[in-house]
Amino acid sequence: MALSRKATASKRSGGARSRKPRATPRPSPPKSIADAAEDRSPLVVWAVSDGRAGIESQVLGLAEAIGRLTPIVLVRKHVRFTPGYDRLPSALKLAPRRFLAAGSDRIDAPWPDLWIGAGRASIPFALRLRRWSKGRTFVVQAQNPRWPARLFDLVAPPRHDGLSGPNVVAITGSPHRVTPERLAAELKPFARALKPLPSPRVAMLVGGKSKAHDLSAGRAAAMADQIAGAVREAGGSLLLTFSRRTPEAAKAAMVQRLEGLPGVIWDGEGPNPYFAFLAAADHILVTEDSANMATEAASTGKPVQVLKMDGRSRKLRRLHDELEALGAARPFAGTLETWAYAPLRETDRLARQVLDRLRRRDPLATERPPR
What we know:
By secondary structure, this protein is α/β, with parallel strands linked by helices. The chain is 34% helix and 15% strand. It has 2 domains: 33-172 and 350-360, Rossmann fold, CATH 3.40.50; 180-343, Rossmann fold. The chain starts with a helix and ends in an 11-residue tail after the last helix.
């Protein structure tokens, strides 16, 4: 039998020597997240979406917020399914790795420490990942996955969805990438064009057609006339950007009425000035169809006014009511209003919750996800 190190040392010294009894070590105090981060290698984080800008910004925003608290290795993954398979409901999407569309990233081992997914395409993988990784991967799903929350380690829906549970962390709006540092950095390439514009500078963020909303040419024209009058009355300038969902007829009606104002109307060519517009703005106007845009705008601390569209959504009405209660947003009624409020920091709050739960490894669900 091999000698222990203590026995070997005694033999070499010619016999055992008396030793003072060792003091019982005191238990170490619990470590903070920052201390724990120093004791481990970086977390490997997968940010998984179908690649659409509004969906990907949520997973990247949460991953980047976690990266501000602890070292991470961030891996962006895009997943899409072949057309026939994509039309199936999630419950029938068996063997999802076999039906990935061309250009998708593989979902294979080695598995990450942390999965952050959003969107329909990510759900069939998230449901299976704890089994595939033998419990090693902590699975976080943003938005409402429309599956029982116990099948994930943590679900992070918008509060206006009304989802609750022991492993649900609801937030105002959606996670995103807006931070003061990012806005300052994104403004720099556009500063020469934007800073000389007369104040107040009004950023106008226009969405478009969705399940609940639309933007007709007539509504767009009326909206543009109201905004043009408000900007002229204030002696300011306009920073206008459209989304991919903005109908062409609505876009044309707005441009016709607004192009005479001082400012910039982004035509979709070249680098996207979206973050730069948020950084340079004194006021932000946002159409009511997008939770992402409203939340990002409210994270700047600047007055946010919501523009009425065709259609209505009870869920988004609840979001706007929530933002109004927080002092961040008000309806636009034809004039620019100025007020102050504490910028939303919901993405940072969610990131702290994810890290705390990941470190504690809360045993929240024992049910096996679908095969």
